[in-house]
Design goal:
This protein is an alpha/beta fold. It contains eleven helices and 17 strands. Strand 1 (20-27), helix 2 (31-42) and strand 2 form a beta-alpha-beta unit. Helix 2 packs parallel to helix 6, helix 3 packs across helix 9 and helix 4 (128-141) runs parallel beside helix 11. The longest helix is centred in the N-terminal third of the chain and has 30 residues, at 75-104. The radius of gyration is 22 Å and the shape is globular. The termini are far apart. The structure holds flavin-adenine dinucleotide (FAD).
Length: 454
């Protein structure tokens, strides 16, 4: 089905050969650029999207389709950085992003997008107390529907002793990621946006009221430019791409696993772990789609087939050795502060990038903020002003990122092993489960926004 879409998309591929005048020129046709295009076009602007390769060439065409609220930066860190009130505002925006995806990812608008409900975040360590306060915070302070899952419930659906408690998001969901991306392109075209592929932008002049955009075969003039090129932006504003640390994430899908899959995984939605190491779900009824290793240098995805195979074996030994049918990877742009870059850099020059691992809801949110900023003069995008552009350190930064990432993963693995060991001698488990159940009951009974009990 994916191939069919791609064939159709490549048949429609158009390069830009003649000069053009538009209201908004968007550089990059990934999730970010296409969402800005769709929303600006729906508000009535004339749009040209310029894509150096083709739609879905990079991360946006290789994501797993999990849509949930929030950002790459953990909510506790966000509160520490900008305070509770600003975090609530940012969180609410991220939920609007989720709702935008839901509203557009319908079978009517995007045939085959196959939206299904429910995402489970599992803990690699036995942190039941932290989970309870997280649950209360999400439910009460951030008005997000969540359910705490006890260890037994998690392990009933994911038959591994690697995971402990879980936070279940009933309103989060998953879609066919590529169908969603190509669906966005189609909706943007239908709304009047023109998308040109194989049309790299090699230079911009953003100083005047009417800005100039240079491609190898044509020039454009536009009142607004939106930079949505992620880590690949390059020449048009190299300083901006240097504020992103490129991280390549790899994913694979297994061959059909038959009846043995039920011995390991029966949860139907996406599963992500609390350290961001693994992210997986069942696809096509009995295969696993699995994202795991990361590097700070581009490598051939095929090199990671055995790493993903091993990872699946470690988590679910009952599956035995699984055969991998396909492997792929994409570069995500990680900012130093972990939050996306959204806003107006100078009059008429906008940025939408740095979406990291959580790009579906955040690009949708960025599209809305930027479209309304451009066309209605709305300033909600300023909620992202505290997250300035910070140089990511070039190649040295990549190396540091790799070392820090590897250390983080190593220490999580160690913490996980210790947790499993401690599990055998745990004496307060029952007490904790009771508190968790109580917190769930209280969260369910309390109207949203009402103060937590003293
Ligand atoms: C394996 C994997 C799994 C993931 N799973 C999920 C998931 O389940 N849920 C989720 O929310 N997120 C997920 N993500 C993250 C998500 O894919 C990214 O956050 C998102 O795709 C970023 O979109 P983007 O438009 O900013 O970047 P990109 O997809 O990189 O698009 C940028 C585009 O701009 C073009 N471009 C750059 N420079 C120029 C130029 N000068 N001229 C013209 N064109 C240019 C590039 O060719 C590219 O096509 C995943 C990522 C990976 C790699």
């Amino acid at each position: 089905m994916i191939e069919g879409l791609e064939v159709a998309a490549s048949r429609e591929r158009t390069r830009l050969y003649s000069d053009l005048d538009v209201d908004v020129c968007i550089i990059g046709a990934g999730l970010a650029g296409l969402t800005v295009a769709l929303q600006c076009a729906r508000l009535g602007a004339s749009i040209a999207v310029l894509e150096g390769r083709h739609i879905g060439w990079n991360a946006s065409g290789h994501q797993l389709g999990t849509v949930m609220p929030g950002f790459g930066l953990p909510i506790g860190d966000l509160i520490e950085r900008v305070g509770i009130q600003a975090t609530r505002e940012l969180w609410a925006l991220s939920k609007e992003g989720v709702e935008f995806v839901r509203a557009n990812a319908t079978e009517e608008l995007m045939p085959g997008v196959a939206l299904s409900e429910g995402v489970l975040e599992v803990s690699n360590v036995d942190a039941g107390d932290q989970l309870i306060s997280r649950l209360q915070m999400l439910g009460e302070d951030f008005e997000t529907e969540v359910e705490g899952w006890e260890v037994d419930r998690v392990r009933d659906r994911l038959k591994t002793d690697r995971y402990f408690h879980g936070v279940y998001y009933p309103k989060a969901f998953q879609v066919d990621g590529r169908k969603y991306l190509f669906g966005l392109a189609q909706l943007a075209r239908r709304a009047g946006a023109r998308i040109f592929e194989e049309t790299p932008v090699v230079n911009i002049d953003s100083s005047g009221i009417r800005k100039r955009i240079v491609t190898p075969s044509a020039r454009l003039r536009a009142t607004h430019i939106v930079l949505a090129g992620n880590v690949h932006l390059g020449a048009p504003l190299r300083r901006l791409s240097e504020t992103l640390l490129p991280v390549w994430r790899y994913a694979a899908v297994t061959m059909p696993l038959g009846d043995r899959l039920a011995e390991a995984v029966t949860f139907k939605g996406s599963v992500i772990d609390s350290d961001g190491i693994d992210h997986f779900r069942i696809v096509d009824g009995n295969r696993l789609m699995w994202a795991s290793p990361e590097t700070t240098w581009a490598m051939r995805p095929q090199r990671f087939a055995s790493a993903i195979q091993r990872r699946i074996g470690t988590l679910f030994p009952k599956l035995g050795t699984v055969e991998i049918s396909d492997v792929w990877g994409g570069a995500i742009g990680q900012t130093v502060h972990g939050m996306p870059q959204i806003g107006e850099l100078r009059k008429g020059l906008w940025v939408a990038s740095g979406f990291g691992r959580q790009g579906l809801n955040t690009t949708a949110m960025a599209g809305q903020l930027i479209a309304r900023g451009i066309l209605w003069g709305e300033e909600r995008w300023k909620a992202f002003s505290p997250f300035e552009l910070v140089w990511a350190g070039g190649p040295a930064g990549r190396l540091a990122g790799y070392v820090v990432g590897a250390w983080g993963r190593g220490s999580s693995a160690l913490a996980g092993a210790l947790a499993r060991h401690r599990e055998h001698t745990r004496i307060d488990e029952q007490l904790r489960e009771e508190r968790l159940a109580k917190a769930n009951r209280q969260a369910a009974a309390r109207p949203p926004g009402s103060p937590p009990p003293a």
